[in-house]
């Protein structure tokens, strides 16, 4: 007590020792380090569950098989078996899937393996040959790996006698028609020059057979390869046919005629100097009304020139199974007795003016066809096929002039008699592939405001597959018009169920290509418009007589109390 009383209160207080400062900080740091170590130990040693990922990848493999035209019935897939590697740090869980694939005769194992390897490489999946069973030497084994884990065992079984699938189209007749057309044009337009037609060569790919014919041509003085291209282009009348010049053509030819992506005719051309030949006269409205479609009709054959048989008319477009309209290839499709739900009338037919829309299908295959319709009334609606030579030209030029532009989306037909054009939607495709092809087609033409189907008797009858198309249209705020090529189509109903503005075709104008038949069909469209208050007709770019009838009849609609409108005005 005395010592405390003797202390000087004014004396300075000594600072705390270093130990008192360092020890708490050291304890906190140690605690944090231990906590981090515990967390890292748990994270490194945690079980890794790849089951959902391997399940999704197995689904993608099946979609890839379907995409490369392995029929669904040829794919046997067992239930997944859960796999676990407990010895690994961390332990891993995944699913193992067994596939047995019967490979069609048209497809070899090596090609299929290449397709699968390419498709799955995007997902960091390796495809490797597995060890074969000596008792089944004719069966090839593939193993699919995600990292070090094998998640698919696939057996490829060969059946050489198996019938080929409907995806294998026979284009030999049409490719021969193109060769005959080239021969005819050369005979007409190369006076003063020479040409030789060489023997055809049979070609095939995974989807089609066709013939490839070459010509050696010495052009007359002054004629260029570009001028020859124009002459041929004006004569092309097969859907999906196109003529090209320039570098990078098959076989280094100077001019090539193709069906879609398949080269059918190649010309090696030699030009000679001299006075240039006259070019084809551009197509305008006067030529349409005057009774002649310039640039689309064959020229007069010169004397003493061998003439080949005329080309067969192109097959008519699909139409519903009705006695007055259905083309032959669709009449063969099986009838299914289902109630037909007709779209309700958009308005009371007794109120106000009657409205008619006319859609011109199959745009983009031929420049002359496009120009012919671009000279007509801009209240027409133009439906353009994807992946065509003049699709972009038709869509952009049409939109600039005031036409309404639709995508004419190719879909699978029931008859299988027509080859599938590039980008066709098949019912065997999975959702991912359907969405991809539809989006890719729409991306080609920014001016598109709606979609209708090209052919599609089989695809439009499948509500599940049509619903995938509607997903795309819904996201893009586009409308749908059912071309109604078969009475089992559910396109209109599926669109309405998805909340998409929709309508249905009432009359095909030109299943018969002669002018009298087209005029009769136009009168039927007029009658339906007057009766129901509105109606939709469909014609086709490749039908010159349709343009002639429309050019003459559209100006007379007003006196009948009918207003021609774009197709978007008749959807609901």
Give me the secondary-structure topology.
Elements: H1 2-6, H2 18-45, E1 48-49, H3 51-67, E2 75-77, E3 81-85, E4 92-103, H4 109-121, E5 125-129, E6 139-146, E7 149-158, E8 169-170, H5 172-189, E9 194-197, E10 201-204, E11 208-221, H6 225-233, E12 241-245, E13 255-259, E14 262-272, H7 285-289, H8 328-331, E15 354-363, H9 367-374, E16 381-384, H10 391-401, E17 404-411, H11 431-443, E18 448-455, H12 463-476, E19 479-482, H13 491-497, E20 502-504, E21 507-508, H14 515-532, E22 534-540, H15 544-553, E23 562-564
Parallel strand pairs: 1-4, 4-7, 8-11, 11-14, 15-16, 15-22, 15-23, 16-17, 17-18, 18-19, 19-20, 21-22
Antiparallel strand pairs: 2-4, 3-4, 5-6, 6-7, 9-11, 10-11, 12-13, 13-14
Helix pairs in contact: 3-4, 9-10, 11-12, 14-15
Description:
This protein is α/β, with parallel strands linked by helices. The protein has three domains: 49-158, Beta Polymerase, domain 2, CATH 3.30.460; 169-285, no CATH class; 351-570, Alpha-Beta Barrel (TIM Barrel), CATH 3.20.20. The protein is built from 15 helices and 23 strands. Strands 15, 16, 17, 18, 19, 20, 21, 22 and 23 form a nine-stranded parallel β-sheet that branches. Strands 1, 2, 3, 4, 5, 6 and 7 form a seven-stranded mixed β-sheet that branches. Strands 8, 9, 10, 11, 12, 13 and 14 form a seven-stranded mixed β-sheet that branches. Helix 14 (515-532) packs across helix 15. The termini are far apart.
Short description:
The protein is an alpha/beta fold and 572 residues long. The chain has helices at 2-6, 18-45, 51-67, 109-121, 172-189, 225-233, 285-289, 328-331, 367-374, 391-401, 431-443, 463-476, 491-497, 515-532, 544-553, and strands spanning 48-49, 75-77, 81-85, 92-103, 125-129, 139-146, 149-158, 169-170, 194-197, 201-204, 208-221, 241-245, 255-259, 262-272, 354-363, 381-384, 404-411, 448-455, 479-482, 502-504, 507-508, 534-540, 562-564. It has 3 domains: 49-158, Beta Polymerase, domain 2 (2-Layer Sandwich); 169-285, no CATH class; 351-570, Alpha-Beta Barrel (TIM Barrel).
């Amino acid at each position: 007590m005395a010592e405390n009383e003797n202390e000087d209160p004014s004396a300075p207080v000594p600072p705390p020792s270093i130990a008192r400062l360092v020890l708490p900080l050291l304890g906190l740091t140690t605690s944090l380090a231990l906590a981090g170590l515990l967390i890292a130990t748990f994270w490194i040693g945690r079980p890794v569950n790849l089951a959902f990922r391997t399940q999704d990848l197995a689904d993608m493999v099946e979609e890839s098989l379907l995409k490369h035209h392995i029929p669904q019935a040829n794919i046997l897939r067992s239930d997944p078996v859960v796999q676990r590697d407990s010895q690994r740090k961390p332990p891993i869980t995944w699913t193992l899937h067994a596939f047995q694939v019967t490979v069609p005769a048209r497809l070899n194992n090596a090609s299929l393996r290449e397709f699968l390897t390419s498709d799955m490489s995007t997902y960091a999946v390796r495809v490797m040959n597995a060890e074969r069973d000596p008792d089944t030497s004719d069966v090839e084994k593939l193993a699919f790996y995600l990292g070090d884990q094998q998640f698919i065992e696939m057996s490829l079984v060969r059946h050489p006698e198996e019938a080929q699938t409907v995806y294998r189209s026979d284009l030999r007749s049409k490719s021969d028609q193109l060769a005959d057309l080239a021969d005819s044009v050369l005979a007409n337009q190369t006076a003063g020059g020479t040409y030789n037609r060489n023997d055809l060569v049979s070609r095939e790919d995974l989807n089609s057979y066709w013939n490839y014919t070459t010509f050696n041509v010495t052009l007359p003085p002054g004629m260029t390869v570009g001028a020859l291209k124009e002459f041929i282009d004006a004569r092309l009348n097969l859907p999906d046919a196109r003529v090209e010049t320039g570098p990078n053509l098959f076989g280094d030819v100077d001019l090539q005629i193709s069906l879609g992506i398949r080269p059918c005719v190649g010309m090696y051309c030699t030009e000679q100097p001299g006075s240039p030949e006259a070019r084809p006269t551009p197509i305008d409205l006067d030529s349409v009304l005057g009774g002649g479609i310039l640039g689309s009709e064959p020229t007069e054959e010169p004397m003493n020139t061998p003439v080949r048989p005329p080309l067969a008319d192109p097959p008519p477009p699909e139409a519903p199974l009705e006695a007055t309209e259905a083309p032959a290839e669709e009449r063969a499709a099986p009838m299914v007795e289902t109630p037909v739900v007709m779209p309700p009338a958009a308005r009371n037919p007794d109120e106000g003016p009657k409205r008619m829309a006319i859609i011109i299908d199959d745009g983009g295959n031929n420049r002359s066809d496009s120009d012919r319709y671009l000279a007509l009334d801009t209240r027409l609606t133009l439906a353009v096929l994807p992946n065509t030579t003049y699709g972009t030209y038709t869509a952009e030029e049409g939109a600039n002039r005031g036409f309404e532009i639709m995508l004419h989306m190719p879909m699978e037909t029931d008859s299988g008699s027509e080859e599938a054009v590039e980008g066709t939607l098949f019912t065997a495709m999975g959702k991912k592939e359907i969405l991809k092809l539809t989006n890719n087609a729409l991306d080609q033409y920014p001016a598109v405001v709606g979609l209708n189907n090209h052919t599609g008797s089989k695809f439009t009858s499948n509500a599940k597959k049509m619903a995938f198309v509607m997903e795309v249209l819904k996201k893009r705020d586009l409308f749908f018009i059912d071309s109604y090529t078969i009475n089992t189509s559910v396109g209109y109903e599926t669109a309405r169920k998805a909340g998409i503005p929709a309508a249905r075709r009432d009359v095909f104008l030109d299943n018969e290509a002669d002018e009298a038949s087209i005029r009769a069909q136009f009168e039927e469209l007029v009658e339906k418009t007057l009766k129901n208050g509105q109606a939709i007709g469909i014609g086709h770019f490749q039908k010159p007589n349709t343009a002639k009838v429309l050019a003459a009849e559209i100006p007379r609609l007003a006196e009948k109390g009918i207003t021609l409108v774009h197709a978007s005005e008749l959807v609901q």
